[in-house]
Amino acid sequence: MINRGAHFISGLLNRKPLPATIRAAQAVMKAYISLPALFSHQTAEPGICGIIPPRLQSLTVICFVAINVILCCVRYQAFSGNLYWSTPQLQVWRYVSDRTGVLAMSNLPLIWAFAMRNNLLMSLTGWSFSTFNIFHRWVARVATIEAIVHSIGYTVFSFLGWYNYDADWKEQYWWMGVIATIVMSLLCVFSFYPIRRYTYEFFLLLHIAFAVLFLISMWYHVAIFAGEYNVFIWPCVAVWCFDRAIRIGRLVFLNLPSFRATATYNQDANSIRLTIPTRSLLRPRPGTYYYVYLLRGIKLWESHPFTLASWSSKQLANGSNIQDLAFMVRPYNGFTARLRDHILQKGEEINGHISKLSVRMAIEGPYGTPYDLSKYSSILFIIGGSGITVALSHLQALLESLKESQNKEKHSGVHSIRLVWAIRGAALFDDVFQQDLLEWRTPSSLTRQVDFRMDVHNTGAAMPATQLNGQIEIAQIFSHRPRVHDLIMECAEEWHARHEKMAVVCCGPGTMVDDARAAVVAAVGKGYDEINFHPEMFHW
Ligand SMILES: Cc1cc2nc3c(=O)[nH]c(=O)nc-3n(C[C@H](O)[C@H](O)[C@H](O)COP(=O)(O)OP(=O)(O)OC[C@H]3O[C@@H](n4cnc5c(N)ncnc54)[C@H](O)[C@@H]3O)c2cc1C
């Protein structure tokens, strides 16, 4: 919330020139706290244990862990001559066990709240699902360690003679507690990054089943307290039910027009386009994503996130409005490969390399924390492969805001847009260039207001000359990878000299996003403090 509040206040303040000291403090905050990776360069590129969150999020996690460690360790008053627990040793084991047990329980609502798709805290803080997912994992790890200490503590306490260890196993609260601790530990083990990455559906189903088992075992574990500790269990159930209810509501509401999509697979570009008619109450926002369900086969629950690429409205014969939402999907191994194969098998071949099919499909959304780029003067998109969807949705929104600005409905301050796109073959570029960038390619009173440039870095097979016809004017073609650091520095220097507020939006492989982040940090460090960085990732 402090983060969101700071953004809001700085948004208000930015309308007037800020005093030099506040700007300097802002720049220091950006360069050393809110933007950089924790230690080194790496934050978007997953390591063996998953991603290491950027510094501000990592510091939040470190503070949380530190608070829990401190609360577990301080102010135990053990003394000889205690009338109830005779020895200090016995007292310490008992106090530590109780303290860690209560702390583990009090963390449960946070674990559930941070895992939900519909999490109000995302709107309040402006932090993404991926950030809350990191918090979810860390709170769960801390709570699990506390539960393990609690279990070990009570076992030792029992062995030391306070309870009868063998008789304890006959007590329901005892073995239910053991089950809860084991299930909690297994939940952590089976959430290890490689399992999530390579067997996502197995991870998901197991996670849900274990979470239910855990709540039930906890319920019976604390039943001896006559409901005193249920106050930590009910919020988990409530948050979970609330999230599921909202998800079903969104699914039904959005898809009622048809529960169908038009799917087109372009073999040369190895890309699927989905166009899904939805009810149009909400205005689509760039940078949002939707979960896509394929309504065939037995895996109906399976849903995968895809970023909105574009949208258009139309009116049906009965007068109702329909919003067509479009997505671009890169087929990989599981869900996306099944979708591609289905289109290839059942679809109608439009020309040699494009197949089209009407598929039963549903989407759930919108999700994500959208942001408005029209408040910046200069925008630099650094995009890798199918990350182009992020740029396309923003370009459409920018065009709309230019129109609104022309009609005096809204002010758009955008002067320069540079789109740097790295691809592994010409076909995807050709497809996007022909279908999605038409308005930007055609000179008009709108596009003339903006200096739009496109650098295409094709590291795959060279583009045939025919594909370049008419494209050269706004697109420069290179045959090497983009030099992300140099590009950002160059733009920052140029735009800073013109006192322009600049946004860098990056969506691509983790290493590309990490390079962009490091370059923005370096640019801010050099005094180009009017830069904001918007990383987008296709994993969490
Ligand atoms: C916010 C976001 C936006 C994305 N936008 C796009 C896009 O516009 N275009 C595009 O081509 N790709 C996009 N992706 C990536 C896309 O979702 C994955 O490539 C796709 O799910 C993997 O397909 P697969 O065939 O390999 O699936 P599988 O092999 O069946 O799944 C494996 C992978 O999918 C991920 N995954 C599956 N389901 C989910 C889920 N419900 N939530 C989170 N991750 C899941 C897992 O982490 C795992 O890595 C996006 C990802 C995210 C997180």
Automatic annotation (TrEMBL):
Source species, domain of life: Eukaryota
InterPro entries: FAD-bd_8, FAD-bd_FR_type, Fe3_Rdtase_TM_dom, Fe_red_NAD-bd_6, Ferric/Cupric_Reductase, FNR_nucleotide-bd
One GO term (biological process): intracellular iron ion homeostasis
Coiled coil: none
Keyword Transport: yes
Annotated Pfam families: FAD_binding_8, Ferric_reduct, NAD_binding_6
Single annotated GO MF: ferric-chelate reductase activity
Protein's recorded name: FAD-binding FR-type domain-containing protein
Keywords: Electron transport, Glycoprotein, Ion transport, Membrane, Oxidoreductase, Transmembrane, Transmembrane helix, Transport
Protein's UniProt keywords contain Glycoprotein: yes
Locations listed in the record: Membrane
Organism: Oidiodendron maius (strain Zn)
Transmembrane segments: 59-79, 99-117, 138-161, 173-195, 202-223
Family statement: Belongs to the ferric reductase (FRE) family.
FAD-binding FR-type domain sequence ranges: 238-373
Membrane-topology descriptor: Multi-pass membrane protein
